[in-house]
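Researcher: We are triaging several targets before committing to wet-lab work. For this one, the compound of interest is pyridoxal-5'-phosphate. I'm pasting the protein sequence and the ligand SMILES. What I need is the predicted three-dimensional arrangement of the protein with the ligand bound, expressed as C-alpha cells, so it can go straight into our comparison scripts without reformatting.
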Amino acid sequence: MRTDLLTRLAAHAQQREQDGLRRRLQTVTNANGMWVERGRRRLLSFCSNDYLGLAQHPDLVDALKRAADSDGVGSGSAHLICGHRSAHAALEEALAEWTGRERALLFSTGYMANLGTLQALLQRDDVCVQDKLNHACLIDGAQLAGAELKRYPHADVAGAARQLTARPDAAALLATDGVFSMDGDIAPLRELAALCLREAATLMVDDAHGLGVLGPQGEGSVIDAGLSQGDVPVLMATLGKALGCSGAFVAGSAALIDGLVQSARTYIYTTAMPPALAAATLAAVRLARTENWRREKLHALISRFRAGAAQLGLPLMPSPTAIQPLLLGDARAALAAAEALEGEGFLVTAIRPPTVPQGKARLRITLSAAHEEGDVDRLLDALSRAPLGPHV
Ligand SMILES: Cc1ncc(COP(=O)(O)O)c(C=O)c1O
C-alpha cells in the first residue's frame, strides 16, 4: 500500500517531540532594540543576528519610508523583466565597492544566493568540497547542482586537501562559511586560499556572519584575512544580519556576476526584492562602513562576555565573533537552560540537532552593539544560576 505523506510527516514530528527536538514557533509582538515582547513577557534578546544594532536605526526606517512613498512596495517582477530599479543598482555598486570587488548581484535571501550560485557554477561531474559545519544552504546547493559533495572535518585544511587531491581532474569548488553560524569561529581562510591556488580549485566564502563585524571597515572575514577577489573569487554575504535588513548578495568579477545573471535560477526566476528594502540596506551599508564605534563596542562586549564566562567556568567555544555559544551537549539540557534564562527575562535559543551535530546542543548567545555592558553582566549573573548540566 502507498505511504501517506502527511501521516509520515506527522510521525516524524512526533518523533522529534519524543527526542526533545520539537521546533516551536513563537511570535514576537513588539521589538525595541534588543528588547522583545512575547506574549505578556518582556525579554532581553541575546539571540538576534542584528550584530551592529541597525535593524531599527532611523536612517534605515527613513530610507525605507521615502523609497516606499516614491516607488511603492513590490518590485513587480524579476530583475531581468522589469524589477531591477535604481535602488537595487545603487546597492549593488555600494556592496561591490565595500567588499573590494568588481561587481555584486542581489538575491532575495542568503539561502537563494547559495543555491543559485552553486547550481550555476557546478555540474554533475564536478566536486564540491565543504567544511562539515557549513550552513545548510551551501550543502543543499551542492546537492541541488548534482555535483559530488565531499565534506571535511571542521576547519581541517589537510582534510580539505585530501578531498581535492582525490579528484585531481574534476572541476572543483571549495565552499566555506567565513564565520561559522553556530560556532562563531573563523575559517582558516588564508590556508584554504593557498590550497585552492595549489589545486586549481575555486574558493567560495559565505560571509553571512562576518560582514559588518570583521575587517577595519566591516568588509568581512575575507578582507580581514588580507585576501582579495583573486584569492576568493566567489564571496556571498547576507543583508539580514549585521546590516539589519533582509536579502543577500554575491560579489566577484564582472564575469562571475554575468554568469550568475545568465544561469542562477534563484536569481532569474523570482521577484526582485522590494526597492525600498534595497534603499534601506544602502543606508545600512553607509552606517556599517563609517560608524566604527559599533564594531568597537561589539568587540568590547564580546571580550567582556568571554572574560566573565571564563571566570564562571562556562563551556565557552573558541569564538572571537558576536556568536558566543555555550556548548551543553544534551538537547534537553539546552532547552532547560533556555527556559531558565527566559524565567529570568532573557531570550536565548537552544540550538539542537540536526542544526548542530548529535551531542552538541548549545545555547547560541549572540551579542550586539545595541547591548550595554550592564546587559552582559546581568546575563552572566543569570547564567551563573542557570542549570547548565554537565558540560561536554
Ligand atoms: C552562514 C549562513 N549562510 C546563509 C544563511 C541564509 O541567509 P538568509 O537568512 O538570508 O536566507 C544563513 C542564515 O540565515 C547563514 O547563517
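Researcher: Any quick observations?
Model: The longest helix spans residues 292-311.
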